Amino acid sequence: MSRETFRTLSGRAPMQALPAGATDCHMHLFDSARYGAHPGGPPAPADALIEHYEQVQAWLGLERVVVVQGNAYQTDNRVVLDALGHFGDTARGVVAVKPDIAEDVLDAMTEAGVRGARIMNILQGAVGLDQMLAVNARVHPFGWSMIVQFDGREMAEHASALEKIKGDYVIDHMGKFLEPVTPDSAAFAALLRLVDRGNCYVKVAGCYETSRTGAPGYDDVAALSKAMIRHAPDRVIWGTNWPHNSSNGPETYPDEVQLLDCAMAWAGGSENIRKIFVDNPDTLYGFATS
């Protein structure tokens, strides 16, 4: 039976239609009837179910999805694995695993569609930077990438560890600069240097979490996003960040379609839109070879 939600699941169409194969590279699911929050993590947000997300998918014109493990569930990845079973080849998963995870579990997760491991150094993440390289060593042979989130003001401090990652990795949320920085800042320059090494992607997502200028244009984060896209359009991906865990009710809930309109405007043209929403996710998550 369908469960009610305060979240907005439909509305006006985006100003520009997404290209075929458009991919949401970052979203979460929460289901209190099936999964409980785990010790060490934050409380689980209000239910954000597959049936809710599918309405958002149809509304925005998204065809593929990367389901990312939420912090509330720590290393209990059942919600991601169950979603992969539901979505099939149109989905990939990013899970939270410890370095001691068994080989057969990694093999089974890979077969199910998992293609990434989450490193989250803030907001009670399950696996932090101190375990990043050990996790990378375990999952790289399975073709997994890493997605990494920390306070971007520490970019230079963590650069040497990030440079040791084998294979591809993603810096989340446009660097997640918890206080505003500008495109000419030292921290942003450090991010550009990581991208220039050739195995680092940057994800445009969750701009409302760090923007101080706010909606509708998120001008401070927009400046960083546009600078990154100009610098390396082949290394940028995008995600809804649904269900916007920092919003606890309709009063603070972001405008889903406005966020997408912003991202497409920041892309600067149809060629980059195709790269960010289709081609780059194809390359990173293997949709093109499914």
Topology:
Elements: E1 23-27, H1 50-60, E2 64-68, H2 78-87, E3 91-95, H3 103-112, E4 114-120, H4 132-139, E5 145-149, H5 155-162, E6 169-171, H6 186-196, E7 200-204, H7 219-231, E8 236-238, H8 256-267, H9 270-285
Parallel strand pairs: 1-2, 2-3, 3-4, 4-5, 5-6, 6-7, 7-8
Helix content, binned percent:
25-40%
The fourth-level CATH homologous superfamily is Metal-dependent hydrolases
Domain tally: 1
Residue-averaged pLDDT, rounded? 95
The CATH architecture can be named as: Alpha-Beta Barrel
Distance between the termini: 32 Å
Biggest beta-sheet profile? 8 strands, parallel
CATH topology: TIM Barrel
Question: Largest beta sheet: what is the strand line-up?
Answer: 1-2-3-4-5-6-7-8
Strand content bin: 5-15%
**Which blocks of ≥5 consecutive residues have pLDDT under 50?**
none
CATH class: Alpha Beta
Which shape, going by the Cα principal axes? globular
| Oligomeric assembly | single chain
Elements, N to C (H/E): EHEHEHEHEHEHEHEHH
What is the number of E strands? 8
Global Rg: 17 Å
- The structure class reads alpha/beta
